[in-house]
Amino acid sequence: MDILYNIFIDPFVQMGSAPDLFVQTLWEGLVSGVLYALIALGFVLIFKASGVFNFAQGIMVVFAALTLVGLYEAGVPAILALVLTIGVMFVLAVGVERIVLRPLVNQPDIILFMATFGLTYFLIGFGELVFGGNPKVMITDELYLPRGSVEFEMLGGFVSLQKIDITAAVIASIMVASLAVFFQKTRIGRALRAVADSHKAALSVGISLNQIWIIVWFTAGIVALATGIMWGARSEVSFALQIIALKALPVLILGGFTSVPGAIVGGLIIGVGEKLGEFYWGPLVGSGIESWLAYVIALGFLLFRPQGLFGEKIIERI
Amino acid sequence: MRAPDMDAGVTAGDVLLAVENVSLRFGGVKAITDVSFDIRKGEIRAIIGPNGAGKTSMLNVINGFYHPQDGRITFKGRTRSKMRPYVAASQGIARTFQNVALFKGMTTLDNIMAGRTLKMRRGFFWQMLRHGPAMAEEIEHRKVVEEIIDFLEIEAIRKVPVGRLPYGLQKRVELGRALAMEPELLLLDEPMAGMNLEEKEDMCRFILDVNSQFGTTIALIEHDMGVVMDLSDRVVVLEYGRKIADGVPDEVKSNQAVIDAYLGVPH
Amino acid sequence: MFYREAGQFKTNYAADMAVFPILQDKIGIALILTLALVVIPLAGNAFFLSVVMIPFLIFALASIGLNLLTGYTGLLSLGTAGFMGVGAFACYKLTTIFPGVNIIVWILTSGLFAAAVGVFFGLPSLRIKGFYLAVATLAAQFFLQWCFIRIPWLYNYNVSGAIEVPTRTLFGIAVTGPNASPEMRYYVVLGVVILLTWVASNLVHGRIGRSWMAVRDMDIAAELMGIKLLPTKLLAFAVSSFYCGVAGALMVFLWYGGAEPEVFSINQSFLILFMVIIGGLGSLTGSFFGAALIYILPIVLRGAPSLVGLDIGAATVEHLTFMIVGALIIFFLIVEPHGLARLWQTGKQKLRVWPFPY
């Protein structure tokens, strides 16, 4: 009975007795959720438009952040470094399209997936070769990002919010909104959705696949850069980030591989779920459950809704 | 074209499969509404109708891939509210598909051998050794498969991965795979779609031979009316998921509802 | 001209169904076996055996395991290292609790533990497919790795948190532990790998293999033919995890001689997936090719600069290795998406018609 009490009742008693702590944990969860969502967003963009399950999205985040900091350390002014990094991401998009995607067109999904593995390895090696393997500190002040924290007195305690986290949430919302407009209202957005539905049909009405792919990978690159800056500002810029980027997978499962709102909601659910889980239930089994809880949440969810949060029920035909 | 003891209109044999008042919905979409018909032992039964009439869904209901919301299915005297794929297969219902559903990475031989899976008994232990009883069983089934290969005249492509075969031959291999199950009821979903005249003639010959040599009951969906009228003993016509006609080919041909369904009704 | 089956007629089905129906292939496999069993142990030095051959064979075994699941049954798994870890820790527990029983018995038994865990994590495969399933196996990977760290009972409460392999003998000769000779370890690994490769080959060429491939190629058609999907998939998970578990036990007991949970990290899973894909999905021979390329290539790359007299820092070489391996993966996928096994097939086909083009 003790076990049942500890699992099902005690954590909620704790939440009730210290609501400020609960809100603080919730906020932490939301913030890491936003970052998961941003990575998942990059995944979704590429998956929608090219059907490629881009394993390299996580490493693109690190690579973008490293390039930015690396350029700054080499003496380039911060804003110019930002512009140059955007340029590098564009070159990367063109390179991926030319060297990886174009020769592999029409191959099975798993082959393209493996190719992005190759890309991951290449970018890790290349990034470390050029910028060194040591963790770097993100240039926050130079990019006019706010630092410090805001404290609220509420619920009989203090809740402190990092300004950088608030900024991250705002930037993420702006980015999602502009992407939504881009997808729904522009000619390129329409072409993108057409490509997502069927490559062949899109080609037959004169949409250039190559151009679309470059645009999509470039957009994903910019999303990666934004993610990298935010994440780098919270901790540090290092290749350890790529394991955390794997957390975007359960987010995608929750949200569905092709849904932008799904990526956002899924990210928040996973972020909050694992922070609360770790804080309230983790001590029961010796903590550290953050490493797998996200996957188990996604798995449990999948068993009941195999098509994801926003996916339609799949009718199998033959 | 038919065996002499089965003159048109007087079909011999008991009812092998009966579908009663079957309705199937996907969300709000009604695929099949209250359809009943039967298939008698030894006959060739055609299911026709315009595109989207629910023909393929009907076959999917019969072999348990779709589960209807209402109705009953009686096969070999046992009545069920729905079929299960495994039950259908083990009771002797085999199937070919509208868009060929072969195992693309496997050879013709392996595809047809896979059709024998249900008949193979040797367990995991012997399979690990692949000697003794497992090998004997494998050889025994290989003989049956070779007879099918011989019957369908596909000896030359025995060891070719089916993904590389032209469409017509794929359809033939798929028929072979279904035959390997030694079915009592064979469901053919547009066996002649996309074939040229010569291939169609071959396929017609195989279907008739299967029916007369092995005594297999056949239900087929087909759009080529010439083929349907020549091959089948009885025809059921579906439109928008409902049955609009049922009978021997000549009756169906002159049925006003069928003519309207195919040619359209003047408004 | 020399590699042709012309004139070799099969007079019964058994001969036609043999795994190597062509005489030249039979000779080839005999040569490879002699090479592995006699020539390499005699000619190779201890370094070659313990740094190249033993790891290569172990990776090949793990690749075969993953290939049975991903290549033959079409179920993508990213949890290979987790299942290998189950094998290693099970073997460690078994041999420390029952030290009297022969270590080879325990190595094979530990595979059964991995199989059970594999079946458990394979259960979701009934409802989910493709990349979604990959996430289920990631759950296995991270959960199992967490268990290896957080459950001290698994590593007998060692302060270091790592497994230390005790000495175990076979016919009085040390097989595991610090005193085991490379030759002895090599022979044990080789024996296990040959046995299990033979079993895998038997499985995939019979009814079970056909059911696996049927589920991979067109699961709906397979189901409508009476192949039950869940048992077939779970069997694939069980057999695959058994192979991975044995490979994991071999890895720790006969190669590393000790292991921290880090050995079974997600990167190990990816590495083995590379081997399977580069080698060729759905090919046992390919698993050996893939293991050879992915494992041996970095060794060669690391050794190459000093051989040609270049003095580059170790870190730089490491980074370059990463880059080259990454680029080569992409290169191989572009040249032959079906892997080295398909290149091998094409090569054999060319050889058959040589000296004519076709």
Automatic annotation (TrEMBL), chain A:
| Topology in the lipid bilayer | Multi-pass membrane protein
The cross-references to InterPro entries, in alphabetical order and at most eight, read: ABC_transp_permease, BCAA_transport_permease
* This protein's name: Branched-chain amino acid ABC-type transport system, permease component
Q: Where in the cell is it found?
A: Cell membrane
Stated family: Belongs to the binding-protein-dependent transport system permease family. LivHM subfamily.
Q: Keywords for this entry?
A: Amino-acid transport, Cell membrane, Membrane, Transmembrane, Transmembrane helix, Transport
Q: Which CDD domains match?
A: TM_PBP1_LivH_like
Please list every transmembrane segment annotated in the UniProt record, as residue ranges: 29-47, 52-72, 78-101, 110-131, 164-183, 212-233, 239-272, 279-304
TrEMBL record, chain B:
Superkingdom is: Bacteria
Q: Which organism is it from?
A: Chelatococcus caeni
On whether ATP-binding is a keyword of this UniProt record, the answer is yes
Q: Which residues form a coiled coil?
A: none
InterPro entries per the UniProt record, alphabetical? AAA+_ATPase, ABC_AA/LPS_Transport, ABC_transporter-like_ATP-bd, BCA_ABC_TP_C, P-loop_NTPase
List the GO terms this entry assigns under cellular component, sorted alphabetically. plasma membrane
Which keywords describe this protein according to UniProt? Answer: ATP-binding, Nucleotide-binding, Transport
**What GO MF terms are annotated?**
ATP binding; ATP hydrolysis activity
PROSITE patterns, A to Z: ABC_TRANSPORTER_2
Name this protein carries in UniProt: Branched-chain amino acid transport system ATP-binding protein
Domain (ABC transporter) spans: 17-265
Q: What's one Pfam family the UniProt record gives for this protein?
A: ABC_tran
From TrEMBL, chain C:
Transmembrane domains' residue ranges: 27-44, 50-69, 76-97, 103-123, 130-151, 186-204, 234-258, 270-300, 312-335
Q: Where in the cell is it found?
A: Cell membrane
Topology of this chain in the membrane: Multi-pass membrane protein
Q: Report keywords, A-Z.
A: Cell membrane, Membrane, Transmembrane, Transmembrane helix
- Domain of life of the native organism: Bacteria
What the entry lists under InterPro entries is as follows: ABC_transp_permease, LivM-like
Q: Name one GO cellular component term.
A: plasma membrane
**GO molecular function ontology, one term from the record:** branched-chain amino acid transmembrane transporter activity
Question: Which is a Pfam family this sequence falls into?
Answer: BPD_transp_2
Which PANTHER family does the record match to this protein? Answer: ABC TRANSPORTER PERMEASE PROTEIN, HIGH-AFFINITY BRANCHED-CHAIN AMINO ACID TRANSPORT SYSTEM PERMEASE
What is the name listed in the Swiss-Prot or TrEMBL entry for this protein?
Branched-chain amino acid ABC transporter permease
Species, as recorded: Chelatococcus daeguensis
Q: What is the lineage of its organism?
A: Bacteria, Pseudomonadati, Pseudomonadota, Alphaproteobacteria, Hyphomicrobiales
